[in-house]
TrEMBL record:
Single GO MF annotation: hydrolase activity
Keyword Coiled coil in annotation: no
Keywords: Hydrolase
The species this protein was found in: Agaribacillus aureus
Coiled-coil stretches noted in the UniProt entry, renumbered to this chain: none
Name listed for the protein in its UniProt record: Serine hydrolase domain-containing protein
InterPro entries for this protein: AmpC-like, Beta-lactam-related, Beta-lactam/transpept-like
Keyword Hydrolase belongs to the record: yes
All residue ranges annotated as the Beta-lactamase-related domain in the record: 38-349
Enzyme kind, highest EC tier: hydrolase
Amino acid sequence: MKLYQNIFLVLGLLLSFSLNAQKYLLPSESESFKQDFKKHVLKKMKRYNVTGLSIALEIEGQHILEAGFGFSDKSGNVRATKDTEYPIGSVSKIITSTAILKLCTDGLIDIDKKYTYYVRDFSMKSHFNGQNEFTIRHLLSHYAGIPRLRAKGFMKKEPKPLEDLLLNSKDEYLISPPGRVYQYSDWGVDLLSLLVERVSGVPYEEYVENHIFKPLNMDHSYFGPAKYTKGYNNGRETETYKYSYSGSDGVTSSASDMLKIVRLYTNEGRLSSKQFLSYEVVKDALQNQFIDAPLAYDTGIGLMWDVQQLKNGRTRIKKAGVHEPFFTYIFFIPELQASIVICSNSNSSSSIHWDSWGRLYSFLAEKYNLANHESPSKKRAEHKKVTLTDDQFKKIEGSYSTSIGILNFKRNGNKFDVDLKSENKRGVGVPYSGGLIKLYIKAFGIKIHAMDVFWEEVNGEIIMGKQFKSGSRHVSGSKIDSRQIPVTWKNAIGTYRVINYDENDYKTFDSIRLFINSDDILEIRGDIKFPRKIAIQLGLSPVSDELAIIPGYNFDFFGGETVKLQKKKDGGYYLTLSGCEFKRISK
C-alpha cells in the first residue's frame, strides 16, 4: 500500500510542477487581449487599405479568437468570417509536407532515402561532379538543388497532371549539388506531391482529401481557385491565376482550417487522443536542417517550416504564402502552444501580418516573462576597418548576381567603387574584418549607409550575401564568371520574344533583351508582367557555346538556372529559360 502511496505522491508532485511551470491564461486575460487585438486589427486594416482578412489565434491551446474582418466580396457586400476561403499560396507546401510526414508515420516512406527510390523515372541534368541524387529530406528543407520554379506552366488556367513534372525536369539542370545551399523551390515541393501520388497509389489531391482534410475536419479546404472570395489590389478588385501545381501553390483554405494543421505541430502530432503524426517526425519537422551545409550560414529551415531560435530560448515557427493578391501567414511558438493564422485577400496586407504577430508576441513576452531568458544565439562580432591584401582585392573584384540585381565591385585604393546596376546607383564599399563590406551610396549629396554584405570563398567560388544587424548571414549571390564570352553568345545578342505559350498558360512575360553590359558581362533584362510586374536583371556565366548559368542562390525566380542557346535551321537564334522558349526578333 505504501508503494502505491509513493507512486501517487510522485505523480502529484509532477502534476503540480507542470501546472506551476505553465501560467494558464485566465478568462479575463483572454477577453482583454482579444478585444484589444480586434481594435488593433481594424486600425491596421484601415491604415494599409486591406479589404478583408480572417484570423485564428490560440494561446496554451485555448481558442482566443476566430473571426473575419472586412469583406470577402466588397461589391457583393459579403463579410469575411472565420471560415472565409482564401488561396493560401505557398502555405500549400505545409499541406504537402504534412502528407509526407503522414506517410512516414505510417511506415510507407523513409525521408532519408533517395527520391528516385520511390520515383524511379525522375531525372535532371547536372553541371556538378559527384553525388547529384537528393533525398526526400533535401526536398522537404529546400536543400535538393532544384531550381525555384519552371515559370512557364506554373500558373495555369486549367490543371495539368503531376506527371508533366518528369517531362519538364529531364532537360533541366540542378542549381547546386544536394545538401550544399538552401534554395527555395516550388518545383521541389511539387516533386514531393508526385511522390505522395506514387507511394499512395491515388492522385495527390485524393490522398490529401482523405488523409488530411477529412480526419482534421477541414471542411473549408480544397484544391483550385476560391469559390466565393475575391482578391483586391490596393482596394481595387483584381483577377488572379486559377491553378498551379497542387503541391506548392494549389490549396484554398480558411484561417480556422489551417489552425487545425498547426495544432498537429503544437500538440506533438496528436489529433484528439490519437497520435496522427509520430512525435519523432514532428520534432524533426521543427528543428533546423543541414546546419553544417557549406552555404547554410544562418538559414533557419525545418521540414518546410521556417525555424528561428528566439532570444528567450523558445522557437518561432513561420510559413508565409502569396497567391497574388492573397496573402497567408502562420506564426507559432510550439513550447507555449501559441499560434496565429492570418489569411487576407489584399496585396497590401503583408505589414498587418507582421504587426499582428508582433502584438501577440508582446502579450506572450509580458505574460511569460520571456525577456528574462538567456539568449542561445551567438554574440555579435565587433567589426573593424581593415586593409585587404592584393590577392583578396583581386578575388572580390568583379560582378555578382544577387537578389537585388547585378553588383559590380572595382578596386579604388583600399576601398571599392560599387555599381548597383539595377537601381543605376553608384557607391563605395569599405572592407571590414570578418569578410564584411559596408556599402555606402550618395543621395541628395549625403553619404548613406545602404547595407552590409559579406564575402567568402567556398570551394573556389566567391559567395556574397546580406549581413543583418543581428550578425546573421544569408547567402544571396555569387560571382559571375568574367572569362571571355563565346562568339556564339556574342552573335546572339538582341531582343527575344516567347513563342511557346499555349491556351492554358498565363503569359508571365513577353520579351527579354540579351546584351553585353559596360563591365563585359553577358546580361538578360526584361519584365515579368503577371501576376504582378517585376523587373528582372540576370547576369550570365557562359559554360559552353550553348549553355550559360545564372549564378547565385536566393529567393528570386531564376537563381542558379541554366539558359540554353540554339541557332536553328531557319537561321534564327533561340533561348530557353525556365521553360519558356524565346526567339530573337531583332538585334
